């Protein structure tokens, strides 16, 4: 890189690029393992897609009646519940949370553990060690960052690339996958909330219209064209009246949010199909404008057609576009659809998953959507598959780990492992492993003792 930059005099054992769903947890886990940790985050709070893209609730990842993700995920839930920012519904589902509360909890946990955070800072590019040899892959010796201080190089023993887009790995020149076989990505969404909703009336209306709810505090309602939603006739009328566009019914889903009475969080609108690459700045920017226009239409629809929403107003438009999938590293192991369907176990497992393949396709009905049943072993209620430690280890780099949605997986497999609780667990494993690699192995992430890592994760309440 030819631009001049200053070198920060301090060094860290572990720098986490991106304080999102996986990265914040990785930072906490690494700091608790006793090393110097810095989390570098583009925005002004932790949690990434789970907070700043307003993705709530956590998707369930249950097998045989047990939540497969424990460890730090459990602690998050306990702390969220204690603040009134988490809740358990009548079915025992404890995955409901308030994104604003999660920002607080993550930040407190990181700082309490002795970790540091640098907000409003973008990771620009890695600085690499001299060329790799056949027995020694290249190391990232520092990250060039950009913030109000200009360009600065920050040095660390191990780098965790938790940008979700594998920004560090890509700029290091290491290989990655992106999109499906045609390079097309999953749909993006711009999530928003409606506040000022009379949830008791909305609950009663949904009950009368084919979507009975257990309680006005835990609403979940939806409409997807052709999926037999009881709300489809209302959407048809709204499209005919010009209130909605046809594509506004491609995916519509609303959820209650604990700690925010009278507010509904929407897992929509879906962004225009041709704007599907969340690693393309022009797509991302256009997604904001496209999404905001759709939010205006959906708000008008809710006010006009959903009793209880007549005087509702836009509470939040997520500051991050919701990006489901962009780049995925080529790791030491690439998880496949077959691994999922066959419930494959791996000796170096760091995470267990039973969330299904869930592709929000921009290609229409020809693609897998919610594939929740079939003859494969995976569809047994007590089934799960493992995710190996090798999936977050990028080929060609010796001191980098990539937990989260950019871990090495095929397009289909990524759509299953990407949910937040799995990102937490991957982050926890990566944080501990990074700390040990920095402290004991000169940064070499392949030298980490995997049985010891699994034992440590279990000691911390993990389910591996
Ligand atoms: C619309 C939508 C709905 C979803 N629904 C659900 C759901 O209901 N439940 C569920 O469990 N999962 C859901 N998911 C999946 C899940 O939320 C994500 O896959 C997961 O949160 C991704 O975590 P991550 O850590 O990989 O990335 P992120 O959480 O996105 O974290 C990446 C972080 O890195 C930062 N960053 C990026 N680039 C840089 C850079 N160059 N420099 C500095 N910082 C950078 C970002 O600001 C962000 O904080 C959904 C996803 C989307 C998009």
UniProtKB/TrEMBL annotation:
Domain of life: Bacteria
GO molecular function annotations of the record: 4 iron, 4 sulfur cluster binding; metal ion binding; oxidoreductase activity
Swiss-Prot/TrEMBL keywords: 4Fe-4S, Iron, Iron-sulfur, Metal-binding, Oxidoreductase
InterPro entries: FAD/NAD-bd_sf, HdrA-like
Pfam families tied to this protein: FAD_oxidored
Gene3D superfamilies: FAD/NAD(P)-binding domain
Presence of keyword Transmembrane helix: no
UniProt-recorded name of the protein: FAD-dependent oxidoreductase
The species this protein was found in: Deinococcus metallilatus
Organism classification: Bacteria, Thermotogati, Deinococcota, Deinococci, Deinococcales
